[in-house]
Design brief:
- The protein is an alpha/beta fold.
- Helix content is about 40%, strand content about 10%.
- Strand 4, helix 8 and strand 5 form a beta-alpha-beta unit.
- It starts with a helix and ends with a helix.
């Protein structure tokens, strides 16, 4: 009898935990009250221009605080008040205390420039084989030729390592900064089910399925760290207009996010449809990736729309640097030999000159920085 009761209690506990992981921590009212107390959120996806990827940005030997300070100064002149910044689990594994110190230094510089940070904890796009140490040099004229996934395929495929290697990282970082007002939000995983065409041969065949299992666990870890900031993970493909049209991944992301985030590199009429398809959820909306000029996703076309719709806005790319995102996605297949006439992403050159002064003027005007 006692064994039966114990078994029932265990089953109920497991069921309760599963249910808890299928709903946001924050109520709609709390999320909307939080958003109402924010300025219009506008910024960029940021990596130091001197870094090819997340590891080079944050490792001690290549952490470039002077460049961050200078580039955040440019962001401040535009009236930007937030940046989306990617971290990596290997940095915790390498030196957790040193990593936290560098994050603290980074946040001090961000605060100096009145910029709050949306940290991205895990990443599912580009190179699935990250390695600590010196990072390779960029392939000339190739978009994001050295960006790396977090975790890499080696850890992703071995679920026995998740609790040992990923859980301490997620809980350690979120827990350390859980009451830090300089941290705006936590983005738990970027595009978890991206099939990643340039590296498809190196990816797990069932990557989307495994990534869904991982993000379910990660959400539990992040909640257990009890952050005061909202948790999210952005939807990025498919039809979001009704629950029956959602993929399993998109459904999980939307059901669990305190604040709804999404990506759209599409023209304004498509962007507007994306926004309307997510309004039904009754939560604040933030577009955490947009702006690919040749795809008609430009500052002039999209940023005024996002402001009018009261949707937060993070364009991809800030300074043209080692990530080389002025080149388009097709630079993995098509050969480029010089700077494209129309930049794909990014706002500034390394010396602070804007790619298009008219864009900078528009951003300033929309942010009240005349």
């Amino acid at each position: 009898m006692h064994k039966s009761i114990t078994l029932i209690l265990v089953i109920l506990a497991i069921s309760a935990n599963a249910s808890a992981a299928e709903a946001p921590t924050w109520s709609e009212a709390r999320a909307n009250e939080w958003y109402a107390n924010q300025p219009w959120l506008v910024g960029s996806n940021y990596i130091t221009s001197t870094a090819i990827n997340e590891l080079e940005m944050w490792q001690a030997d290549t952490f470039d605080l002077a460049t961050i300070d200078r580039e955040f100064g440019w962001a401040e002149t535009l009236g930007m008040n937030t940046m989306r910044v990617f971290l990596h689990n290997l940095l915790w594994q390498q030196d957790s205390e040193g990593f936290l110190r560098r994050l603290e230094q980074f946040l001090q510089v961000a605060e100096k420039h009145h910029i709050r940070i949306l940290f991205v904890l895990l990443e599912s796009v580009w190179d699935p084989n990250p390695k600590l140490g010196k990072q390779r040099e960029p392939r000339p004229h190739v978009h994001n030729s050295g960006w790396v996934q977090a975790p890499g395929a080696e850890i992703l495929k071995d679920e026995s390592r998740w609790n040992r290697e990923l859980r301490p990282y997620v809980m350690g970082v979120v827990g350390h900064f859980r009451d830090d007002k300089r941290v705006l939000m936590w983005d738990l995983m970027n595009e978890p089910d991206n099939d990643n065409p340039p590296y498809k041969a190196q990816e797990l065949r069932n990557k989307a399925e495994v990534a869904l299992r991982l993000i379910r666990q990660e959400w539990t870890w992040a909640r257990d760290a009890k952050p005061s900031q909202p948790l999210t993970s952005g939807v990025w493909k498919g039809d979001w207009s009704s629950d029956d049209k959602l993929s399993e991944m998109s459904s999980f992301q939307l059901r669990n996010s305190d604040v709804i985030t999404f990506h759209s590199y599409e023209p304004p009429e498509v962007m507007k449809g994306r926004i309307q398809s997510l309004r039904r959820l009754g939560r604040p909306l933030v577009c955490t990736e947009y702006m690919a000029r040749p795809r008609a996703s430009t500052f002039a076309a999209i940023l005024p729309l996002l402001k009018a719709e009261k949707v937060g806005a993070y364009n991809w790319g800030f300074v043209d640097g080692k990530s080389q995102t002025i080149y388009p996605w097709d630079s993995w297949e098509k050969t480029y030999t010089s700077e494209p006439a129309v930049w794909f992403h990014d706002i500034f050159r390394k010396d602070g000159r804007p790619y298009d002064p008219k864009e900078v003027t528009l951003i300033k005007q929309l942010n009240g920085k005349n």
